[in-house]
Design a protein that fits this description.
seven-stranded parallel β-sheet, alpha/beta, single chain, about 400 residues, four-stranded mixed β-sheet, globular, about 45% helix
């Protein structure tokens, strides 16, 4: 029986993780969960899985949860605020910590988990975008293990040889005879829309992803392909790759989740339904395979598999991310912070869809970024970038 702590328990990744755990109650015990503010969802989790500890980032929600649990005769230790989430993440009682908190808010809890030397099933791409090498230095120092949960990075992981899989962050792609990592993406809901129509895109349209079911922020990132840009940066750190080792390919059907080409001309691809339970099950069960509840692909029903190169005029955020990747950790931290502010402003109708890239570009041009050597420096750079982003949003 392995203890699991789930960070971001009420989001889409958290919900899928719970479904996988539900199928393997003899193998996993849910030790602790953390969420932002969804009290009713957390009550349901406590009722079913009976975790020992729960944390709510929103302190008022923590109080409400505590009262509801008492009223129902349920017991779990309830912690509140960012400190409560960090405490749950880093209490050392979990064999596996699933990091599924969206955005920069997930960085400190994941670092707290790393310091316990456990397995990190990482769904929070921003942790690597912001802290990359610092993150993996901590992983090495504390003897933790990282397994990717993002569908694309899980696909790449599954295509690599075992020696690379067990040494993420420090693996040698040349020794593994890897020629190129092919990072696929759907292209989002506007991949075929006239460029002129992007000027009037609404938040509701951007959230309506054609294939995946995701939260609002990630859905907007998918539409702009900033999501793919962040994944490009994440892949660099996970697989110890250079920018030239990775190529982004648009694949509208989202059946091939990513590929790895090798020096002998072979290309290995991981295919499957667009369902996050597969990569979650891979991370939880590694090196074994777990049932996930995901149906097999029916190849007779697949009409076509198509591919194209990304258009940087349509996807300026992708280009900005790839440029930031070349500039280093400070630039990628600023990129992520600016994007979070811009997407939030777009979702609240404060800026237009095309303004997201303008805000990010503006921050990258204005921020005075050097190299970063600690999490404190990362967080301070993040804070300053958000201030600049908010000032740009206010001026639009």
């Amino acid at each position: 029986m392995r203890n699991v702590t789930l960070l971001g328990a009420t989001g889409s990744i958290g919900t899928s993780t719970l479904d996988v755990l539900r199928r393997h109650k003899d193998e996993f015990k849910l030790h602790a969960v953390a969420a932002s503010s969804s009290v009713d969802k957390m009550v349901a989790i406590v009722q079913e899985f009976k975790p020992e500890r729960v944390a709510m980032h929103n302190e008022k929600s923590a109080q409400e949860l505590n009262q509801k649990l008492k009223d129902l005769g349920l017991y779990a230790e309830v912690l509140a605020g960012a400190c409560g989430v960090e405490e749950v993440a880093g209490d050392g009682a979990a064999d596996v910590v699933v990091g599924a908190i969206v955005g920069a808010a997930g960085l400190k809890p994941v670092i707290a988990a790393v310091k316990t030397g456990c397995v990190i099933a990482l769904a929070n791409k921003e942790a690597l975008v912001m802290s990359g090498q610092i993150f993996f230095e901590a992983v090495k120092k504390y003897g933790a293990k990282v397994l990717p949960v993002d569908s694309e990075h899980s696909a790449i992981f599954q295509c690599l040889p075992y020696e690379a899989q067990i040494n993420l962050g420090y693996c040698d792609l040349k020794q593994a005879n890897v020629n190129k990592i092919l990072l696929t993406g759907s292209g989002g809901p506007f991949r075929d829309s006239p460029l002129e129509s992007l000027k009037t895109v609404t938040a509701a349209q951007a959230i309506a992803h054609p294939v995946w079911s995701m939260g609002p922020k990630i859905s907007v990132d998918s539409a702009t392909m900033m999501n793919k840009g962040l994944e490009f940066i994440e892949a660099r750190y996970l697989f110890n790759a250079t920018d030239d080792d990775i190529k982004v390919v648009i694949h509208p059907q989202s059946v091939i989740h990513s590929m790895v080409s090798f020096t002998d001309g072979a290309i290995l691809a991981q295919l499957g339904q667009p369902d996050m339970r597969t990569p979650i099950a891979v991370a939880l069960g590694f090196p074994q395979r777990l049932t996930s509840g995901v149906d097999m692909l029916d190849f007779e029903k697949l009409s076509e598999l198509t591919f194209r190169s990304p258009d940087f005029v349509r996807y300026p955020c992708l280009k900005l991310a790839m440029q930031a990747s070349k500039s280093g950790q400070g630039a990628t931290t600023c990129l992520n912070a600016a994007n979070e502010v811009a997407v939030d402003a777009f979702l609240h109708n404060q800026i237009a869809y095309l303004d997201i890239a303008k805000v990010v570009d503006g921050v990258l041009q204005k921020a005075n970024v050097g190299s970063l050597s600690s999490i404190d420096e990362v967080l301070e750079t993040d804070r300053k970038a958000r201030e600049i982003a908010k000032s740009i949003v206010g001026a639009i």
